[in-house]
Amino acid sequence: MDDTITALGGDVYEIDTRMAGYSGITAGYLIMSDRPCLVETGTATSSQTVRDAIASLGVGPGDLATVVVTHIHLDHAGGVGDIAGYFPNAQVVVHEKGARHLVDPGRLMASARMVWGDRLDTLFGEMSPTEAERIVALGDTGSVDLGNGRKLTSHYSPGHAKHHVGLVDSATGDLYVGDAAGVFIPETGDVRPATPPPDFDLQTALDSISLFRALQPQRLLFSHYGPVDEVQDVLERSAEELNVWVDLTRQAHGEGMDLDHAVAMVRDRTRERYAALKADDLAERFELLSPAESNVAGIMHWLGKVSP
């Protein structure tokens, strides 16, 4: 089997998309049901890696039925247009608030370039447009037919981004959490928030985590990164980390700190919470996945709205 693929049981295969050449950054998941389904495409620059992994599992160009993304950020959905091109029969499923950006990615790419600058090309590449007639837009709940009575149900979870959904597989009880429960580092068991601007809202984010707990999934499948069996413990930790980051950023905001000083303070005060930061290779990956600057900027943006 291709070395980017890990069998997870229940006809689910994790695909390491090799984002920006790294291992263990972003996972896509292929559900090998009667109607094969890819959850998360990864970036545009990862699309050939993902295509080759799908092909090595025996799913040909005409066989993939559905591509579903939890949200439209480029590390999750940047490859949608390319994957849609490789698999011309696949429907593309996304929350209704993200659908138009897949059809015309111009605004999404422009705002990403403002954040990432020249690093955009190496980290993400350029999202290709997807034909509107191939897109299925989900409301706050919806379902994706996986064939033979199996389905993915979507659950609107907008704390991280207003176009975010979690997805539950009826056959396995797996919950695809996207970024709504943060970033998980399997080597150390660390969980860190993902709170980028402009959509972060603390109560909405905590409500999304509460919803995930109430769904009582058997397993969490993190886009960053991998399967987690300790469902309730990890979701509890996810909520705890959100509160820690918000409390510290609120303190910095209250003291009138600018973003750079706030980031330095929060980074310093949270360092001991994460074993991953003690290993150089993991620390680099952690910072790429859940950059302290992006997290603090997202919380500051929210604080500017709720307590200017």
TrEMBL record:
Keyword Hydrolase on entry: yes
Superkingdom of source: Bacteria
Gene3D superfamilies: Ribonuclease Z/Hydroxyacylglutathione hydrolase-like
Keywords assigned by UniProt, alphabetized: Hydrolase
GO molecular function, one term: hydrolase activity
InterPro entries the UniProt entry points to: Metallo-B-lactamas, NDM-1-like, RibonucZ/Hydroxyglut_hydro, ST1585_MBL-fold
Protein name according to UniProt: Glyoxylase-like metal-dependent hydrolase (Beta-lactamase superfamily II)
Source species: Nonomuraea soli
Lineage: Bacteria, Bacillati, Actinomycetota, Actinomycetes, Streptosporangiales
